[in-house]
Amino acid sequence: MASSFFSDFGLMWYLEELSRKELVKFKELLKQEAEELGLKQIPWSEVKRASKEGLANLLTKHYDGPQAWAVTGRVFLKINRKDLCVKALRESTGHTRKYRAHVKEKFSDMWRRNTITDVAEFFHQKITQEERQYLELFLRPEATEKQSYTVVLQGVQRIGKTMLLMKIILAWSDGIIGQDRFSYIFYFCCGELKKLPATSLAELISREWHEPSVPGIEITAQPERLLFIIDSFEKLKCDLNQSESELCSDWEEQQPVPVLVSSLLRKKMFPESSLIIATTPNLSQELEKNLKDVQVRVMMGFDDYSKKLYFSSILPNWGQAVQAFNAVQENKRLSMLCEMPLLCWLVCTCLKQEMERGQEPAEVCRCTTTLYTSFILHAFTPRGAHGPSPQGRGQLQGLCALAAEGMWTNTFVFPEDMLGRNGIATSDIATLLDTKILLKEHADCYSFLHLSVQEFCAALFHVLKNPSEHHHPAVDSVDVLLMTYLDRTKKNWIFLGCFLMGLLHENEQRKLDAFFGFQPSQEVKQLCHQSLRRVNENEDLQSQVDFSKLSYCLFEMQNDDFVREVMEPIKKVNCLILDNTDLIIFSYCLKFCRSLRKLSLCIENIWAKQPHRPVLDSSLVCWDQICSVFRRNEYLFDLKMKDSILNESACIALYSHLREPHCLLQSLKMKGVVLNGEMRLFFDIFIQNPNIRYLSISSMKLSCEDVFLLCEALDHPTCNIESLNLEDCSLTADHCDAMAWVLTHNKKLRQLNLTCNYLDTGVGRLCAALSCPEAVLDFLELACCYVSQQCCPALSEMLVRNSTLRHLDLSLNILKDEGLEILCEALQLPYCSLRSLCITECGFSTHGCQYLVPVLMYNQNLRHLQIGVNALGDAGVKLLCEALVYPHCRIQTLGLQGCGLTSACCGDLWNVLTHSKTLEGLNLSSNSLDYSGIALLCKALQHPQCSLKVLWMGKGDLDEESWALLRTVEERDPELHIVSA
């Protein structure tokens, strides 16, 4: 085609477009480009004196058509006449046109073959204007001025990424998008690529080419007009951290497939080309980290509007469609599944079938297991029949055996011989494909419709069969399956345990009995019960179990007696409540936790968007049931709520149960909680309920009125709060007057934490209150409160006058050496009662250590000093060490982390460790100690007079030899613990 073009029309048409200057440049570059393409040289004397027409004749005389075009196109690009290159490409060759036609035919066929019919019809190939604009974003990304780009299409498996890619390719082949941008789009599925031996990119392209030979020169002439689409990247194990030298730049060089793909992605090969990479979220992050100029587009699947449209397309009766949609929305797990087009088809198809049989959709959507059981069993029951054929039962049992082997061996794509080993004959495959439970991935390889379908079939296998009957040794017992599912640290199975327990529900047992003609073994239920009983008897196992997964499993089963036996011994629970389904499930399970001692709640999305809207009755009822646990459980003493948003109705429900005298809670911790209710009612809890002793309100913005109401409650005679934490509550100096009043009048409050508030000058008011004889506080934290050296006189006076304060934390404040000097005037007095002082990261230097020396020598009350992350240096620590060996020094714990120490101070530390009778804890982490210094410390640690019990060291700060030496010393001394900080 190219040859006929050049002979019929000539290159002269294009050369005539060149200016005189461009023609000269063209001739100069011609020799260089011909050499790079490996073409014979045209004599320079002929080229130099040739006119435009003569030059065209020389090109066609010395080169065949494709060669002439290749060299001409490359020179056009070098002289910035890309317009001529593009125009000539379109007019001179039929390869692009033929390739587009081939692509359209191929992907239209893929669309028909590889998608569920109803899903494909819903995503019909016809492109709307709105869709066109969306698809063009993939071929013309925003926020980039570069010709080359990389787009990562991120989405969970089966969300519809491949379908979207097919739409992009079909739209391009139809000329709707991108034809002026790309001459060729090449699609590679990594699931197919990973089976190939070493090959080249040229060979990969030729495998799908529509003609015997690939016009390689034409393709490579304009790499910026190439788009490579890499689908299912997660299926190909590519090392994106390979060195540049291991990658390949030659598209004809044979390499392992992962190396070829990595070379494309990292732009070693065809750096001017563009990429679209479809993958899962975990691989998307790795691509962002390792590739340059990546744009990420997240595929979210169906929103609620799309779900409604899809339901109406499957259920043509509008009333039935609405009824089915509402039933699904009530079950958040099913609603989330319907975000995936394939699973939305599964749910809709199942509901349609059950509604035709007279079933209520709400009953089918009772739990996830119910719907999946109905769908799977119906797929193997011929239309109009009362039950399956023996062949159908055998096919389903074979599928279940295949699914079980896949789950235990982490296999999700199955070759045909693996089907055969599990009892699925070649003749059965067509039938299984018709059910859509099994899909064809590529040549002789198959997968389940979705991972959840595979998990259901695997669970069904364990209910029907003894795992010992399976031919594969990896298929383990029911109790191991359940514990593996519940263990938060092991396999990432999503529904498997829930399906297993759900299939033990009496309704599902009846379905299985009717289908298979026998009652599944009750031994499965007994094994599950025994496993969960072992958890209840072992606290270490309890800490490993994911309570959310356990609750979902038990809810699927819904056997009150069974749930009671499992939940009653549980002492500690963490609940992450994201939706109404979580509310329903946790409210069901928590009522059986009679031994519960600690409960942590996080409620993120229930009322987050409309915090003032009256709550739905179902949500409020479930929330009220959860709150009732606070007063009904006689052992529950610790409640923590974090990162939650409650609207007014939810707040009222919470307050009504917390204020009950029967609520025996002793500790209430609220962190990052938004209470959209009357705050007076919240603080009234601590007046009404005398049992609460510890109150923590952190990361919550409190107004002046809120603080006043709190202080009013604290001042009430029936309030028994002893410890109050108001960390990061946006407090300012204006709030300190109310707090000061409490400190002088409240005889019960012993601990106060005001960390991370902008108190500034308000600290003086607190100090004045604590200087009064009436003050009883013994624990005060003022870390990161913008306390400056100007506040130090007030602090110093308070330390002199106060006889009850035992702990003071002033960390992360800019006190500097001048402020330390003022503090030490009080601290060195023998009657200063402080036992613990934390002044970490306060801007002290070596000079400031001289002020601490008399404190260490003469204050026999001070036991714990944290002075880390200050620039003390070796010289400063030397001063401290001289004081630490003084006979009257009583320091037990000393923090010197991050103080700029080197091994030069280890001699002084050796002296302390071998002479101090009281020092039991020393923190030296984040300092630069070498092997010689560590060796000296180890010698001191082995000294018979050394009393140290805990040494904190930073493992990352030491070489392996030093760390090994420390561990050897630790092993020899059973009373010494070396902690990696």
Automatic annotation (TrEMBL):
InterPro entries: DAPIN, DEATH-like_dom_sf, Leu-rich_rpt, LRR_dom_sf, NACHT_NTPase, NLRP_HD2, NLRP_innate_immun_reg, NOD1/2_WH. Signal peptide: none annotated. Pfam families: LRR_6, NACHT, NLRC4_HD2, PYRIN, WHD_NOD2. Residues 149-353 form the NACHT domain. It comes from the Eukaryota. GO terms for cellular component: cytoplasm. One of its GO terms (biological process) is regulation of inflammatory response. The keyword Repeat applies. One of its GO terms (molecular function) is ATP binding. Keywords: ATP-binding, Inflammatory response, Leucine-rich repeat, Nucleotide-binding, Repeat. Transmembrane segments: none annotated. CDD domains: Pyrin_NALPs. Residues 1-95 form the Pyrin domain. Belongs to the NLRP family. PANTHER family: NACHT, LRR AND PYD DOMAINS-CONTAINING PROTEIN 12 (PTHR45690), NACHT, LRR AND PYD DOMAINS-CONTAINING PROTEIN 4 (PTHR45690:SF6). May be involved in inflammation and recognition of cytosolic pathogen-associated molecular patterns (PAMPs) not intercepted by membrane-bound receptors. This is NACHT, LRR and PYD domains-containing protein 4. The lineage of its organism: Eukaryota, Metazoa, Chordata, Craniata, Vertebrata.
